[in-house]
């Protein structure tokens, strides 16, 4: 099981604001911010359901190729809400909410490109 993961972002403050808005509908909040002085290399922010940050962003050169991160949620409504919030926060559509039966019959997901082109997804595997 993965404990946490991180991506690099080109504009730390803008990306931190984007993720605070985009991940709020799925229950993730900004849990921790560490300065470059604290980490010894770069500004870093961790998001997750408090108190545990599972998803981290760090100032730096964005990953090439961009990263794909999928957040599992427990309802299709949360997928819809994530998508709307991420688009409103400046993300770009990369697949509107809907069924993706080529993965499996109940795969309901939405995809948004973040400010650096990372493919961020919310997915629900439960039946409607």
Major β-sheet annotation: 5 strands, mixed
Total number of helices: 3
What's the CATH topology name?
Answer: 2,3-Dihydroxybiphenyl 1,2-Dioxygenase, domain 1
Order of helices and strands: EHEHEEEHEEEE
Basic shape: globular
CATH top level class name? Alpha Beta
Uncertain stretches = none
Q: Indicate the mean pLDDT.
A: 97
User: What portion of the residues fall into strands of 2 or more residues?
Assistant: 25-35%
Q: How many discrete structural domains?
A: 1
How many strands? 9
Radius of gyration: 14 Å
CATH homologous superfamily grouping: 2,3-Dihydroxybiphenyl 1,2-Dioxygenase, domain 1
Summing up helix and strand content along with how strands pair, one would put the structural category as alpha+beta
Instruction: Indicate the CATH architecture.
Output: Roll
Percentage of helical residues? 10-25%
Pfam families: Glyoxalase
Protein name: VOC family protein
InterPro entries: Glyas_Bleomycin-R_OHBP_Dase (IPR029068), Glyas_Fos-R_dOase_dom (IPR004360), VOC_core (IPR037523)
Structure notes:
Pfam families: Glyoxalase. It comes from Comamonas avium. Residues 1-125 form the VOC domain. This is VOC family protein. InterPro entries: Glyas_Bleomycin-R_OHBP_Dase, Glyas_Fos-R_dOase_dom, VOC_core. This protein is an alpha+beta fold. The chain has a single domain, classed as 2,3-Dihydroxybiphenyl 1,2-Dioxygenase, domain 1 (Roll). It is built from three helices and nine strands. The chain has helices at residues 12-23, 36-39, 76-88; strands spanning 5-9, 29-34, 44-48, 55-59, 68-72, 92-93, 98-99, 108-113, 119-124. Strands 5, 6, 7, 8 and 9 form a five-stranded mixed sheet that branches. β3 (44-48) and β4 form a beta hairpin. α1 (12-23) runs antiparallel to α3. The longest helix is centred in the middle third of the chain and has 13 residues, at 76-88. The chain is globular and about 45 Å long. The mean pLDDT is 97.
